[in-house]
């Protein structure tokens, strides 16, 4: 069944919001990259009432540990959005879904490709790329991106006027990708490799070709060019994600992408594989 919306609890949430203090009301969305890289990816997003994971690419135990670092109880997660079927994005999805009875939001092609890795999941919510859906007061818009998987998805998550855009694991930034990411308050954007490091690095030729191809991964230079086109005055944070441990460094990514951000006040971050990022509050 195609998932359209789930309004359960929306009235209750609205009632809770009315009882919050002024300072608490100001935070619309909180975002924390629990980890990002070729060994595992997961992003936490919450408005204080509805909490989601975008991917869960570690073991269930490791996801739980990283949530605990940020004071988050896994039983308070309301669902998992799945971008694609590669193991570094779905390793812990099935385990967490079964352990905490979580709904898994996934498109049909990805579900078919990932079925053996996910195992039995009772609560599946099937979405279509290009069709928005609602989870309580969060508006989710999935959109297609170019990567070598069945139907790789980027996401925007919106609450009132605050919008988070997520685009990792893509070989090119198409016009559609740019259009969906425009107007974001925070971007989680791939900066996978430094082209020179990739060319001179240890990977075999076929893997280098895959990474820099149209269904591979964005380089630091690609990310810089994308941001030059879509940056705006209300873009508060950019988190560079999915950095290669062999073909990139945080310093190289920050320097190259930072060239596009020199004329604005956007804060630039790098997500790492080893530890959780900061919890970023958007107002």
Task: Write out key terms for the chains shown.
Metallo-beta-lactamase, Chain A, globular, 7-stranded mixed sheet, alpha/beta, 11 helices
Strand order of the largest sheet: 1-8-9-10-11-12-13-14
* Average pLDDT metric: 92
Gross CATH architecture? 4-Layer Sandwich
CATH superfamily: Ribonuclease Z/Hydroxyacylglutathione hydrolase-like
Please explain how this structure is put together.
The protein is of the alpha/beta class and 283 residues long. The chain has a single domain, classed as Metallo-beta-lactamase, Chain A (4-Layer Sandwich), CATH 3.60.15.10. Helices cover 31% and strands 24% of the residues. The strands form two sheets. Strands 1-8-9-10-11-12-13-14 form an eight-stranded mixed β-sheet. Residues 1-23 have low confidence and may be disordered.
How would you concisely characterize the structure shown here?
The protein is α/β, with parallel strands linked by helices.
Q: SSE layout and pairings?
A:
Blueprint: E1 5-6, H1 10-18, H2 22-26, E2 29-35, E3 42-46, E4 51-54, H3 60-69, E5 79-81, H4 87-90, H5 93-100, E6 104-107, H6 108-118, E7 124-127, E8 133-135, E9 138-144, E10 153-159, E11 162-167, H7 175-181, E12 186-190, H8 195-200, H9 205-212, H10 220-230, E13 237-241, H11 250-258, E14 267-270, E15 280-282
Parallel strand pairs: 1-8, 4-5, 5-6, 6-7, 11-12, 12-13, 13-14
Antiparallel strand pairs: 2-3, 2-15, 3-4, 8-9, 9-10, 10-11
Helix pairs in contact: 10-11
């Amino acid at each position: 069944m195609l998932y359209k919306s789930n309004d359960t609890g929306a009235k209750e949430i609205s009632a809770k919001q009315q009882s919050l203090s002024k300072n608490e009301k100001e935070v619309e969305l909180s975002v924390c990259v629990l980890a990002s890289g070729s060994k595992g990816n997961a992003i936490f997003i919450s408005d204080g009432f509805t909490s989601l994971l975008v991917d869960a690419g570690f073991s269930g135990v490791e996801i739980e540990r990283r949530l605990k670092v940020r004071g988050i109880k896994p039983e308070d997660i309301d669902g998992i959005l799945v971008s694609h079927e590669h193991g570094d994005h779905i390793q812990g999805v099935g385990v967490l879904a079964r352990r905490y009875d979580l709904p898994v939001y996934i498109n049909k092609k990805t579900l078919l490709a990932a079925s053996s890795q996910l195992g039995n999941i009772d609560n599946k919510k099937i979405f279509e790329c290009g069709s928005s859906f609602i989870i309580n007061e969060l508006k989710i818009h999935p959109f297609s991106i170019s990567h070598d998987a069945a139907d790789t998805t980027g996401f925007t998550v919106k609450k009132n006027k605050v919008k988070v855009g997520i685009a990792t694991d893509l070989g090119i930034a198409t016009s559609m990708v740019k259009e969906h990411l425009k107007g974001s308050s925070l971007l989680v954007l791939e900066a996978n490799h430094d082209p020179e490091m990739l060319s001179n690095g240890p990977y075999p030729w076929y893997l280098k070709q895959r990474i820099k191809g149209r269904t591979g991964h964005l380089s630091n230079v690609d990310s810089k060019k994308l941001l030059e086109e879509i940056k705006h005055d209300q873009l508060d944070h950019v988190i560079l994600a999915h950095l290669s441990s062999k073909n990139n460094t945080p310093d190289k990514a920050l320097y190259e992408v930072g060239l596009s951000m020199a004329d604005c006040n956007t804060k630039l971050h790098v997500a790492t594989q080893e530890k959780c990022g900061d919890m970023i509050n958007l107002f």
